[in-house]
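Batch 3, record 17
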Amino acid sequence: MNASDTSSVPPDRHVRAPATSASLLARMTGSDCVIRVRELNHFFGEGETRKQVLFHNTLEIQRGEIIIMTGPSGSGKTTLLTLIGTLRRVQEGSLQLLGQELNGIARQDMTALRKQIGFIFQAHNLFESLTAFQNVNMAAELVGIERAAARQRIEKLLTRLDLGHRIHYKPHSLSGGQRQRVAVARGLVHSPRVVLADEPTAALDRHTGREVVTLFQELARDEGCTIIMVTHDNRILDVADRIVNMVDGYIHSNVLVRESAAICEFLKGCPSFADLTPRSLSEVADTMQAVLYSPGTVIIKQGDVGRDFYLIRQGSVDVLQADGKAQRHVATLHEGQFFGEVALLEDRPRNATVIAKTETLCYTLGKDAFRDVLSRSHTFEEELRKVLFDRQ
Amino acid sequence: MRMPLAVANLTHGKWRTVVSTSGVALAIVLVFMQLGFLGAVAGTAVQIYDRLQFDVLLRSPDYFHFCDPRDIPRAHLYRAASMPEVTSVKPLQVTLATWRIPQTPQTMAQQTAGELRAILAMGMDSGANVFALEEIRQQASRLTSAELLLIDRQTKGDDYGAADGVSFGDPDIDRDVEVGDRRFRIAGHFALGAGLAANGSVLLSESGYARLYPGDAASRVSFGLVELAEGVDADAFCARLQELLARDGDSDGDLSDGAPPLAVLTRDQVRAWETRRWLWHTPIGSIFVAGVVVALVVGSVVVYMVLANDVAKHLREYATLKAMGYSDGFLRGVVMQQALILAGLGYSVALVIAEGLYRVVGHLANISMEMTWWIRGCVLVLSIGMCCVSGLATLRKLGKAQPAELF
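Prediction for the assembled complex:
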């Protein structure tokens, strides 16, 4: 473990983090962090009118991730985006972009860093006096792409975005959607390592909107480009690896979409949760905590008071039961299996000891939350009605 | 090659650029006109010399200006005439005298009759070719007595009491006038133009001039007009003559203060001296220099407004450039390029307009407005300087381009 990594804890303690946080998984899969936000606070105004807009934001974003940021207007998501994009100065806390600390960064380093970012603005901000091609070329030129290569690349990109016939038009003779696509091409042409996009599909129809997000996905997959989008377009939510929700300047939830889905699948296999709706399941998934155990750690000790419910995300555990003086191996549990629910359901001490066999990642749910979920499953019928009503 | 954003910005807003260019051109035309007037002052100042026939001019070292030239001993003229390179030496007398139309029953109706006016009085050998003007040569033959004079038609006729109240001409012939309180009769007229010191001029015979300054005129003259033989270098001659006169002075021993007894000047030196005096040692030059400064200030403000407006209009685009990672230097370059292009466009338009205006104004005001290469170059440099100053002032506005406000 890295000593400078503030998320590390001494080896004799368990590593604990929200179940859907990327950090633990990332550590296990070894991917690298492109954006690391720690305890970031931000203020607008001076003196008496000074107002805090971001509170203790902590966030890690990996290479190749596609993040969708949601939240009501005024929740601070745009401020966070401009801070990540070096368009605002970091005031308090730490923000590392591509390995460089932005708090107190020198001006020329900032300018250099900006060349590795692709901005896509909702208001397009195209250069009115330049053609679509020249607009995109402004970005290509800056990073010194060779002329012929740039031309080829720009034409390919614009054609891909269904603008092949409008390459030499100026913005004022393009429709809103076409302008937006030029802005997208300009944000992507220089193979940025990070793309920051504000409603990139807002003015687009279903088909072209899909084409834009497909481009994003290709960039993320093939070039490891990290994409952060602010969007309210629920047609494209499915491309997100993670959804970060902000409310009143706090990161309200930070959910790995696929991880959340996986937990839901596992939970459905548990009889106690079988009749929960998908919405309740994902809420449970979001409240679970991830805990990492090293091999040989005692997770549950027989006779203790039951406090948590456990779901094995990765690794395996041995279940041992003491019968008189002898301790008997009852079972080995693997990924997707769970334990600890009996003590919570029947409110009695643990009936067995569980020991991590390999390095094991478990998702846990506290006793109160577990009970709460169960009580909710009685209202299944009610929820079903609500879902049906929503569909109308 | 970099994308020519400055050019694109200017060609994109065509009408805007046309209006901006007009504004800049207007300011530059003003500069052209002021410099033209300045040139005209200098031109008018040397105009009278341009009409005198000489290769080398002898005059007093204390010469002040054409109407107040002081005088030199007539002997110097003889000394010069004795040199082999010289073909002729002619004296010219010049003084500023009073002018008056005497009050008579005929002139009672004239408002200015009896009032004094300043007039340039010139006395010359009526048989010699003092002026390079055919008309004066012919008219001079009428100066057969000391009581006669010729009057310049360009004398302000209304103020100086011309017979028709407008300008002097044939009706004035045989009228009696007073010059320097002496009675003269008008024998003819000519066109010359007195320059800047007086509003009129008259031409007298040497004997007529002698009536104004009895005694002096015989031994002393205002100017000596030296004409050289074909192929003689004027500069070398000047040096030789001066050396000769200095030696004479030594041998005579009558000049104890060591001051040069005589100024010996070529035509170019005379012109340069006159130009310098009128442009820099009189308020006339300063007025037009001030005019140039004012025009430049006006021009700077116009260019500043145009550029500031342009920057304000493109502020979001400039902020986007910053966000993309373009340096502040690049943005400054775009603004300065626009400033220089405006300077170039404005100058070209202004040059064409000014060429036309010089002719029109020169004709109307009867002054010589000449578009010289010096003026063209000078205005070009001033225009570029003006636009650069405005461009630099506009750069501060770029600070308002805040990329954080783009989202």
